[in-house]
Design a protein that fits this description.
This protein has seven helices and 39 strands. The protein is mainly beta.
Length: 700
């Protein structure tokens, strides 16, 4: 098998190779690489560098790539712990055979292909510390783009004291923090969701199959313009659904294509918000169109008129697949738009060619319009949906209507694996502090809140692919418990050890021993966390194993049954995705609602990680290797007096026992970190704020 070799050497800012550095390099292939014999390349390659940090690994050279293209993800971890991990990506275009050597150059040092580090490290020229954002950079030719649709909050409505400084606007902040993206802003003021959809389909059209991240920010105008009515809510829901179907599509087949064959009376309806600028329209009962497609599923986009739309039926032979009365599917918008896009998905056809019939079945003269057919994409772009917060202006329709419209974001997004929802209220937005002098648009604080919310959602995206999101983010509020006045410090001997737990030589330089969990054991320290209701910090060192890559595992938990009032609070666990580990912090707020922060899913087997979760009384923060990976404004439920603090499992419902190496577990009654920090390189000692300290030295 032909191969190409990628190499790297650590250099100082002047470009001189540096001695005395050991680097562990790992290369992971993305999907779709197929070598000479047709088999897919899946092996993860790892090597340890020479003393000067130089390393090399061979990659399969002839790779038949999937239509979406693929990539190699590269991670470097400094074995001397002096620097944080660097991760970057080699993108491979969608061609039948790519010589990988032609795509592999020297490591990027600046610009859109960023390297992430816990602290600034002069050993790599031009690479500054990155406090937050994606852990994988993309090359200029293959980078992702950032697309926004929304109302004035997106289009530039800014009432901050520093509004002359465009860098403080939330979209600029997000673009800067994600770094790998450039921004295309398609927001327009005084618009509703039906208008957003009109821009995505026709006014400022989305190109199906584009690699990128989409953000739709704007629920406030829908709240204040009919959001409390059934038709206003229907229009919001229908337009959002149609737009998400468009974003998930790999191709549009316009109504003018030969795959549409019309019978009866049809005319052309012209509007810039239609896909392609026009739609086919009939007002005559019995007129129909036969629509041909290949594959298991597709989506038809139709529309009628507010208060007067006809009834459309979609059938496969004698089987009726859908019948929709379009007469009351939206409220006429302030912009004068009196129709909205309506999505009719059909599926379950299996492979091959199929034809469905679209008919107008009612006797009225109201129009039925056939706009476009959407075909699915196997890996659609991620879509971030932002729910707005309250405003102090008299035009505001109230918190009840806001909750209804923002709730529709959540319910509609639940049907799309590539959509994630964030609510500005969960990140500190308030009518009193977040709006400017016009009492409507965000001030400096409001823009900061929006940027934080969108960044939290962006952190959930699988950046190695760039078009695939891992799941729906749950982002409301939360905390942990109240400090034990008596304090607690000791070794694992102070806990009740059960099952497969053993001591091993610590993989961390400067530490003696660590705890190895084999999937059957845990250590129960009793109710040592009782009373952590003012502030806290739980931290530990973690080395996932190969077994950690394939199954969920509890790492640290004081989290009991969801149905016992006052019982639960905090857990940190691993939910591996795609063969890589992912940290999740979960807790319950003062009202008992489950809250969580999900870290990036790119942790390989054998890597050394420092993990900490802090709460300062108002905000929960999750750190990995000293870098903030997520935060959430939240209260925390005070735990009961009996639920245990457990390492390697949970005292209540468990996602699975740990199969990792854990060391230096410390529980404190203060939030020791509120910003990025340098992970410890020596064992902790107890102080006045230590509730529990476990070095991993002995087990009895």
């Amino acid at each position: 098998m032909a191969t190409s070799t990628i190499t790297n050497v650590a250099k100082d800012p002047s470009g001189v190779a540096v001695a005395g550095i050991t680097v562990i390099a790992t290369l992971r292939p993305g999907p779709g690489f197929r070598v000479d014999d047709g088999s897919e390349v899946t092996a993860i390659k790892t090597t340890t560098s020479a003393g000067d940090g130089s390393w090399s690994l061979a990659l399969e050279r002839n790779a038949n790539i999937t239509p979406a293209g693929s990539w190699w993800e590269i991670e470097e971890v400094f074995a001397d712990t002096a620097g944080g991990p660097r991760q970057w990506t080699i993108g491979v275009g969608a061609v039948n055979a790519t010589l990988l050597a032609s795509l592999i150059g020297p490591p990027p040092t600046s610009g859109p292909a960023y390297l992430t580090q816990g602290t600034a490290d002069a050993r790599y020229a031009g690479v500054a510390a990155v406090a937050a954002g994606p852990t994988v950079g993309l090359g200029v030719a293959d980078r992702l783009d950032w697309y926004l649709y929304g109302h004035s909050y997106t289009a530039g409505g800014y009432q901050g004291a520093s509004q002359a400084n465009a860098s403080l606007f939330w979209t600029a902040r997000v673009t800067e923090s994600t770094r790998a993206l450039s921004m295309t802003n398609r927001g327009v003021g005084s618009t509703l969701m039906v208008d957003f959809a009109g821009r995505a389909f026709g006014g400022a059209p989305w190109v199906c199959g584009t690699r990128g991240i989409l953000c739709v920010n704007g629920t406030l105008n829908d709240v204040n313009n009919g959001g409390g009515t059934a038709k206003g809510q229907a229009g919001f829901r229908n337009a959002l659904t149609a737009m998400l179907e468009l974003f998930a599509a790999g191709a549009r087949i316009e109504h003018t294509n030969g795959q549409f064959v019309y019978t009866g009376t049809w005319t052309t309806f012209t509007d810039a918000r239609c896909s392609g600028g026009t739609a086919k329209q009939t007002t005559v009962q019995g007129s129909y169109a036969d629509v041909a497609f290949t594959g298991d599923s597709m989506v038809l986009i139709v529309h009628g008129i507010d208060g007067a739309g006809g009834t459309v039926q979609v059938a496969n032979g004698a089987t009726v697949l859908a019948t929709v009365d379009l007469s009351n599917q939206m409220l006429t918008s302030p912009s004068g738009l009196n129709w909205c896009h309506y999505a009719i998905p059909v599926s379950g056809f299996g492979a091959g060619s199929h034809t469905v019939r679209v008919s107008k079945t009612d006797a009225s003269s109201a129009p039925v319009r056939l706009d476009v057919m959407l075909l699915p994409h196997p890996s659609p772009p991620a879509v971030i949906l932002v729910g707005n917060g309250p405003i102090p202006d008299p035009s505001y329709a109230g918190d009840t209507v806001l909750a209804t419209i923002n709730g529709l974001l959540v319910s509609v997004a639940a049907g799309f694996a590539n959509a994630v929802v964030v609510d500005a209220r969960d990140f500190g937005w308030s009518a009193a502090t977040s709006c400017g002098v016009d009492r409507i648009h965000p001030n400096d604080h409001g823009n900061s809140v929006l940027a934080t919310a969108v960044q939290a959602a962006a952190n959930q995206i699988d950046w190695t692919n760039g078009t695939h999101i891992l799941g729906t983010l749950s982002l409301p509020s939360g905390t942990l418990g109240t400090p034990n006045s008596s304090g607690f410090a000791g070794t694992p001997a102070n806990g009740a050890v059960s099952g497969g737990v053993s001591t091993v030589a610590s993989p961390w330089s400067g530490f003696t021993s660590a705890l190895s969990f084999d999937g059957s054991g845990s250590i129960d320290f009793g109710a040592t966390a009782t009373g952590l209701s003012a502030a806290f910090c739980v931290e530990f060192k973690w080395q996932p194993t190969a077994a950690s890559m394939g199954t969920n595992e509890e790492l640290i938990s004081r989290y009991s049954s969801d149905v016992v009032a006052g019982a639960g609070n905090c857990r940190i666990y691993n939910v591996p995705t795609g063969g890589l580990a992912r940290l999740v912090a979960q807790w319950r707020d003062a009202g008992g609602t489950i809250r969580q922060i999900v870290g990036p899913g790119n942790i390989g087997s054998g890597t050394l990680r420092d993990v900490s979760l802090t709460w300062d009384g108002t905000t929960m923060r999750l750190f990995r290797d000293g870098v903030l990976v997520g935060s959430l404004a939240s209260s925390v439920e005070t735990p009961d007096a009996t639920t245990s603090f457990v390492v390697g499992d949970a005292p209540g419902p468990s996602v699975g026992k740990a199969q990792s190496v854990i060391e230096e577990v410390r529980l404190s009654n203060v939030a020791r970190y509120t910003a990025g920090y340098t992970p410890p390189v020596a064992p902790f000692t107890t102080d006045a704020n230590t509730v529990l300290l476990v070095h991993g030295d002995t087990i009895s």
